[in-house]
Amino acid sequence: MLQLENRTKYMFLLLTLVITIVLLYESYNFKFSQPSLIKQILLSQRFKKTNQSQEYNYTLHIIAVADVERQKHYQRHSDSVFCYAHRHGYQFSAINPHDYHMCSNITNFYFKKHCAVIMYFIQHPFIDWLVVLDGDTFIVNATRSLDRFIPRDPTIHVIHYERFIDNEIMAGNYIIRNHPWSLLYLYKWSNYFTRISNIGYHNHDNGALHLHFIDMIGIDNQTYNKCASLYNESHHEGLYMNYVACTKCALKGRRKFEHIILYRRAHGFCRDEGSSPHRIHYLDTFMHGYKANLNHFYEEPINTSACTAIRNWTPKIRQSLIINDTQNAKLFTKQWEQESSNRYPSTVMYPEVANCWPDCEIEMTGDALKNFTTRICNNPKFKT
User: Which pLDDT band, with edges at 50, 70 and 90, does 277 fall under?
Assistant: First the structure.
C-alpha cells in the first residue's frame, strides 16, 4: 500500500512538472515544430518504457466518462463495454469527472472529461493505453479486438478518428498512450474551455479539438489564426462547418503526424450511429450516439454476470439491422457518404472513402489527395 502511495505521489509530481512546463510553453509561445528545451524535456520523460519487441504486449484500460445521471441512463451501454472488455482481457471502468477535485475549476463538463483522463492516468500509472469513451457508446460486435488500432511505433501517443457524417475529428472517443506528451495534449485541450464563452456555436470540446489539433502538430501561426477567427465567428452550424473545413484544409489531407494518428472516416474503432440510421455492418465494433434504450439493437438485455462466464461473448444484435456481406456494406457506405456530402458539402468530399472502403490507406495519395485538398480548400471563407 505504501509503495502504491509513493508511486501516486511520483505521478502527481510528474504531472505538476508537466503543467509547469506547459505554463512556460504558453508564456513564451514556443511551437512544437521548433526545437526547444521544453520539447526535449517532455519527450525524454516516460511513464513506462515502450515495448518495441516484435510481440508487443501492453496493458489497456477502457473508461466510459459520464456524470451520475448519465451513468444511470447509459447503464446498458456500459454493461456491453464491460462484457467486451472482459472478453479481451481489458479493464473497464465508468468514471465521473465531477469526482476529481483537481478538475473542479473547469466548469464545462466536456472539457472536464479530458482533465479526468489525466487524473485517471495518475491513479493508474502503469497502464500503457487508455480507450476513452462517451457514456452513450456501446458494443455491436465483440469479436474484434482493439489490437489493430494500437501502434507499435513508440512515438505515436494519440489516436483519433474522423466522424463519418461530417468529417469532424471525433472528441468523444479516442485512444491515448500513457506518456507525458499525452498529458500535455490533454491539459491544453481541457484548457480551451476558457475560450468558448463568446462563441455562439462552439460544439464544446469537439469544436475546440480542431484548433487544438492543428496547434499540437505545429501548424503555422497564420493558418492557426485564420481558422481561430472562423471559430470565433461561428454563430450557427454552417459557419462552424466552415471552421472545421479550414482546419481540415490545414492538414492537407494528412492523417499521420509525429505523435498522432487520425483514422479516416469509416476506419476508426467506433462509428456514429446517426451516420447509418440503425444499420450495422460486420466491421463495426463500437457504436456511438444512440441515446435511447438499446432494445432497438439488442434482442435481449446484457447480463454482466453471465457474459463473464461465456468465453466468446458477443451481444445478440437484431439480424434485421446487420449488413453481413462486403458488397452490400460497400453499397451502403457509398450511399451514406453521398448523403453526408449533401448535408455537409464544405467538409465531406464525395467520393472520399466510398471507393476504397474498407481498406483505404491511412494517408491519401495521388489524385485522391489532390482532389480532396483542392475541394476542401476551395472555400471563399478561408481560401488564400
Answer: low
